[in-house]
Amino acid sequence: MTRSADWTPPELIGPDRTAFQVRHAWCVGRNYAEHAREMGADPAAADPIFFSKPAAALVQAAAIPYPRSTKALHHEVELVALLGQGGRDLDADTALRCVVGWAVGCDLTRRDVQARAKQAGQPWALAKGFDASGPVGPWRSADDWSPSPATPIRLAVGGRLRQQATLGDMIWPVGELIARLSREVTLHPGDVLFTGTPAGVGPLTVGDRVEARIDGLPGLAFEIVDPAA
Ligand code: MN
Fold it and tell me: What's the CATH fold of domain 11-225?
């Protein structure tokens, strides 16, 4: 039997090509107005909605098993920021300078589980935080790339475009998101933030090939596979 002390968290390959451990995976909901509308929400809501995935849910893998307990696994392409510094009560400029790496990620979501949770006033934990629910592509150093409003973000399934927007469509830009989060919790190196998804989210099935791109970043590609295979 493995002792708890023997457990080490899964590692990702970082922007400097060395392995690192995600400390906390933060996510934000409804950060693109068109997506907020397609989910039946008011895009003019006053504050971002923060939630988490388990750090171990972040994977760099070519195959993602279709999760259990859902008939509506949805893709959400997102820009993902890796923090190399933390702090609290950061202003937006300082917050943005805490980012050491950027990647394309997918906030995989059990949409049916989430819909039932919303209806019942329950948390989103199991809708968002299942095994391998956070595939991320290779990281690019923040020394070499930074988001600009004109930068395209898109996701295709089986070669068909499903989501397309620009990073300027975000309601709260990344620095503002990190700053607001830092007023609620102390942020640390190794924290990761999924920055929200544009409109066009939709279902995935076994055999689907997902390709997600943000111009200037390495692409994210994975296939949804049968968990029993
Ligand atoms: Mn999302």
Answer: Fumarylacetoacetate hydrolase; domain 2 (3.90.850)
